[in-house]
Amino acid sequence: MAELESSKKYQAKQEVFFDDGREIELLHFVYGKPNIEEIRGSPEKVLAAIDEYARTQKYLMNVGEDKGRIVTDLIAEVKPQVMVELGGYIGYSCILFGEAVRKAGGKKYFSLERNPEFAAVIASLVDLAGLSDLVKVIVGSSDVAIKRLHANGTVQRIDMMFLDHYKPAYTTDLKLCEELGLVGPGSVLAADNVIAPGNPPYLEYVRSTCEQKRSASKGESVNGVDKRFEDRTSKQYAKREGDAKLDETRVGNPNLIYESKLVKSFEPEGVPDAVEITRCVGEE
Ligand SMILES: C[S@@+](CC[C@H](N)C(=O)[O-])C[C@H]1O[C@@H](n2cnc3c(N)ncnc32)[C@H](O)[C@@H]1O
């Protein structure tokens, strides 16, 4: 695969690369643009302003244009009525995918974001993009939000889910959605950063057969993959918010049949990465 075009590259990632005031700085950058009235109501122009900040000012941990296209193409094909993203940050994926869901005739896009300051940035930029009717930003830890959305009947089924939050929570949150019946036959999952930084336990889970998953839920090992892994992002979350408590005992619904494939692309600063696309094609 070729390189990411240099004109598209975001600033390089430094040791500290989020939650240092840059998210509010981004709001001032966007709202301070001389053509703000032309930007208002245009998801494309809001995304372009965010990209401009990340290319000329400071890195932002957005999915970016290249990996984003993989998911927008998928949205156009799947036409989800309800889409959920885990991890919204400043709203880039929310605006890009929310607009794609709207164009595909979908009804609701839920952006789940644990950090209340980031969630406020998402809400502000979503409003600027004119997507407030479609997008609902939910502040809090993804597992708590998923349980509440299910319990109060707001979400009965997730047609598409974009996983882009605390890497170890990809598997536990997917299993939670399976147990609640939110993810089932017909649901499609797109998981970011499965190469950079990587997520072996998640890939192992979505690529396992039902039999392998049933064995794993009885405590037998599957494929011998080491389940311990860590990345810089997870460490930085932990520094501010304490170690996230994950329910490692979840078994999910091991009878769901998945077909899963890796689609290669780039992180917006040019590092090779990929999105894992997983389709639930039935139940045994
Ligand atoms: C990589 S960023 C998301 C980027 C965004 N999807 C985009 O492409 O524009 C990850 C985000 O997940 C949030 N996050 C981490 N753990 C979370 C959790 N358990 N529940 C909800 N949000 C979480 C972080 O605060 C951070 O904003």
Give an overview of the whole structure.
This protein is an alpha/beta fold and 284 residues long. It has a single domain (63-283), classed as Rossmann fold. Helix content is 43%, strand content 17%. The protein has 12 helices and 7 strands. The chain has helices at residues 22-31, 36-39, 43-56, 64-78, 92-103, 116-129, 142-151, 169-179, 194-198, 200-207, 210-217, 232-241; strands at residues 82-86, 108-113, 135-139, 160-163, 188-191, 256-266, 272-283. Strands 3-2-1-4-5-7-6 form a 7-stranded mixed β-sheet, sandwiched between helices. Helix 7 packs parallel to helix 8 (169-179). The longest helix has 15 residues, at 64-78. The chain is globular. It binds S-adenosylmethionine (SAM). S-adenosylmethionine is lined by residues 61-63, 85-89, 92-93, 112-115, 118, 141-142, 164-166, 169, 237, 244.
Topology:
Layout: H1 22-31, H2 36-39, H3 43-56, H4 64-78, E1 82-86, H5 92-103, E2 108-113, H6 116-129, E3 135-139, H7 142-151, E4 160-163, H8 169-179, E5 188-191, H9 194-198, H10 200-207, H11 210-217, H12 232-241, E6 256-266, E7 272-283
The chain binds S-adenosylmethionine (SAM).
Q: How many DSSP helices? A: 12
CATH architecture assignment: 3-Layer(aba) Sandwich
- The whole-number mean of residue pLDDT values reads 92
Quick one: CATH superfamily?
Vaccinia Virus protein VP39
State the secondary-structure class.
Answer: alpha/beta
Number of separate strands: 7
Output the radius of gyration: 18 Å
Low-confidence stretches: 222-228
CATH domain topology: Rossmann fold
Please give the share of residues in helix.
40-55%
Strand order of the largest sheet: 3-2-1-4-5-7-6
Keywords: Catecholamine metabolism, Methyltransferase, S-adenosyl-L-methionine, Transferase
GO biological process, one term: catecholamine metabolic process
EC number: 2.1.1.6
Organism: Lithohypha guttulata
